[in-house]
UniProtKB/TrEMBL annotation:
Keyword match Metal-binding: yes
Keyword list, A-Z: Metal-binding, Nucleus, Zinc, Zinc-finger
Location of the HAT C-terminal dimerisation domain: 569-643
GO molecular function: protein dimerization activity; zinc ion binding
Annotated Basic and acidic residues bias: 295-304
UniProt xrefs under SUPFAM superfamilies: Hermes dimerisation domain (SSF140996), Ribonuclease H-like (SSF53098)
Primary localization class, coarse: nucleus
Feature: compositional bias, Polar residues: 81-94
Zinc found in the keyword field: yes
UniProt name for this protein: HAT C-terminal dimerisation domain-containing protein
Source organism per UniProt: Denticeps clupeoides (denticle herring)
Length: 649
């Protein structure tokens, strides 16, 4: 016989505080953990019970199931008192499937799953009001009560954002230093024309924890509108720094001078796979005079913004290595006007092959994923990146004779000149592809890779002999010198590379000079921290040695090493492939001064940030025909998507 008493998750917690707007603080009855939430949003309580106390969670779910089964049977018995003082049981008929309570764990988990989908896919929150979406929910779980759009916008997503902010501030409290990336992305034509601009600013913080784990968190995503974008960026950066308590901890600020519509990845000119990006390619290639004029204006504004940023941030500001590397490749490819024509033909040939040839035959050339689902592979986001496209073209060229024999379109057949040019192109770009692969992806890569990459690319270009791609080689060399040559003499990059145990000074052609640069840089940062304050109390005299352990040789007193001694000992060791952070975690006691600097320089990223890659996705959503799909709280969604792992790991 079922009781009509309400089953609540709060039965497993003791409420110790209840504030305004339904905010409550409760202690878990099992372990005493303090949990903060709202009465209407109890996912924190459910999650804690599920993760920490599985038996109690199973008991709670079982109680809920018993109650639901009683409702579903259509005979829910309730106890009612009769006027005469006697008691009786009455039976009520349930015509429809009963809905979950708001505090039901399944109701909470389904709502959380919907929020995850909206955040991860950057979907419009209004999707929960769509008839088709609600029909799907009704089919999958008829007992679920769909949450209104307003509830998700005004309560659920802000609650998640508040949790991220609390966790971020707590993590940054123990961080000794950090680096910050300012990602500015402009929307539409505002990136190349007009005095007024609109876009977004992402402020990402990179820091190393006490156990030498590198973390990256997006501190804020803010919309930028109107004039004076640079001043607005600096103002927002200052406010966010003080809000999160990192104002005095920032080691370097990674901020490119000229905001752009595009991210650090781009397509090979004309090499469009599966028809993806045709609109974008038309925007880039058609009307090249307008694009060039826009780039000229943007460059002029970029120099002015660059001076403004340098005046306010000083030597703390550096350019992102990943974006500078991508710009070098992009400029080098523009040195050959004929290249786009050849790549366009190669793309047409590739698209025809994967659309007409059977997967069995394609499997002899391409990987199983491409052979089984070419259209899906061609339209996946990685295929829009030049380095991934280059890999595809290289595989195609390796078996181009075989592919030409099995297709019936002779007008798409590549000539000997075109094949030679494409093979030269893959050889010329291979080291750039390797460097790009290193600094792409979600993994944090420090700037210690930047200087060796520049040296390797320089050496490669100087030794490359090309007949058809001579202009590209010269263009790449010029772009490399213009954008990245300064890295070779920059004390920050010299320090980072030398403190990377896989390099040390093996790359240096003048070890004495680079040692001196490193010593000055280390001394500057260790002096900034200041010497330890002397103890106000006199040092106690050493205790008398125990006679019981007198047979053990007494350990001699070790004196602190100087920076020169630490560096000499460090460089005397052979280079190792060990991860830099693992190495310095292990060696922090042996090299306290060097490890102190290593913990700063390795926070500076060489990679593009997660929010920049999200901006690339947002760019497609902001096209005029898709603007209706945008949620009003886009900044919140970007903020939560970038910090997804903080909430759900």
């Amino acid at each position: 016989m079922a009781s009509n008493s309400r089953v609540s998750i709060l039965d497993y917690f003791n409420i110790v505080f209840e504030g305004e707007n339904g905010k409550i603080e409760s202690n878990c009855k099992a372990c005493g953990t303090r949990i903060q939430a709202k009465r209407t949003v109890t996912s924190n309580f459910v999650t804690h019970l599920k993760r920490k106390h599985q038996a109690m969670y199973d008991e709670f779910v079982k109680k809920k199931d018993v109650k639901r089964e009683a409702y579903a049977s259509g005979t829910v018995q309730t106890f009612a008192g009769s006027p005469g003082g006697s008691s009786r049981f009455s039976t009520q008929s349930a015509g429809a499937v009963p809905k979950f309570d708001r505090s039901d764990p399944r109701q909470t988990l389904i709502s959380e799953a919907i929020a995850k989908m909206i955040i991860r896919d950057l979907q419009a929150v209004q999707i929960v009001e769509n008839e088709g979406f609600r029909d799907l929910l009704q089919l999958l779980e008829p007992r679920y009560s769909p949450e209104p759009c307003r509830y998700i916008q005004q309560q659920l997503l802000p609650a998640y954002a508040y949790q991220v902010q609390l966790s971020t501030k707590q993590s940054l409290t123990s961080a000794e230093s950090c680096s910050v990336t300012l990602d500015i992305w402009k929307t539409g034509a505002a990136a190349t024309a007009g005095s007024s601009s609109s876009g977004y600013l992402g402020i990402t913080c990179h820091f190393i924890t006490t156990d030498w784990q590198v973390k990256s968190v997006l501190l804020a995503c803010l919309s930028l509108t109107g004039h004076c974008v640079t001043q607005r960026v600096l103002s927002e950066f200052d406010n966010i720094s003080h809000t999160h308590g990192i104002a005095g901890k920032v080691f370097r600020v990674v901020a490119d001078s000229a905001p752009s519509r595009s991210t650090s990845s781009f397509r090979l000119p004309g090499f469009s796979l599966g028809g993806e990006g045709e609109d974008e390619d038309e925007e880039e290639e058609d009307g090249s005079d307008e694009v060039a004029a826009g780039e000229g204006k943007e460059a002029a504004r970029g120099e002015e913004a660059d001076r403004s940023l340098d005046q306010c941030l000083g030597r703390c500001r550096i350019d992102c290595f990943a974006r500078s590397l991508a710009a070098c490749v992009q400029e080098g490819l523009r040195s050959s006007p004929q290249l786009s024509i050849v790549l366009t033909k190669a793309a047409r040939f590739y698209n025809y092959v994967v659309a007409t040839v059977t997967p069995e035959k394609l499997g002899q050339v391409f990987s199983p994923g491409i052979a089984s689902s070419p259209s899906t592979q061609a339209k996946s986001p990685p295929e829009s990146q030049w380095n991934v496209q280059l890999k595809t073209m290289r595989r195609m060229l390796e078996s181009v004779d075989f592919l030409e024999d099995i297709v019936d379109r002779h007008d798409l057949t590549l000539s000997s000149f075109e094949k030679t040019m494409l093979r030269e192109l893959t050889d010329v770009l291979e080291p750039f592809e390797e460097a790009t692969d290193m600094v792409q992806g979600d993994k944090h890569v420090s700037i210690s890779l930047a200087l060796p990459c520049v040296l390797g690319l320089r050496k490669h270009l100087s030794e490359t002999t090309a007949r058809q791609c001579t202009g590209i080689v010269a263009g790449l060399a010029q772009a490399l010198d213009r954008r990245l040559a300064g890295i070779l003499e920059d004390p920050l990059y010299v320090t980072a590379t030398t403190l990377d145990p896989q390099f040390k000074l093996s790359w240096s052609s003048d070890t004495d000079w680079h040692k001196q640069v490193l010593l000055e840089e280390v001394a500057k940062h260790t002096q900034a921290a200041g010497p330890p304050e002397p103890s106000p109390d006199p040092q106690p005299s050493p205790s008398k040695r125990s006679k019981l352990f007198s047979f053990i040789k007494q350990r001699p007193n070790t004196q602190a090493k100087s920076v020169d001694q630490e560096l000499a000992t460090y460089l005397h060791e052979e280079p190792t492939d060990e991860d830099p952070l693992h190495y310095w975690k292990r060696k922090s006691i042996d090299f306290p001064l060097l490890s102190q600097v290593a913990k700063k320089v390795f926070t500076v990223p060489a990679t593009s940030t997660g929010v920049e890659r999200i901006f690339g996705t947002v760019g497609k959503m902001l096209r005029p025909e898709r603007c209706r799909l945008l949620p009003k709280n886009l900044e919140t969604l970007i903020y939560l998507k970038a910090n997804y792992r903080i909430l759900w790991t």
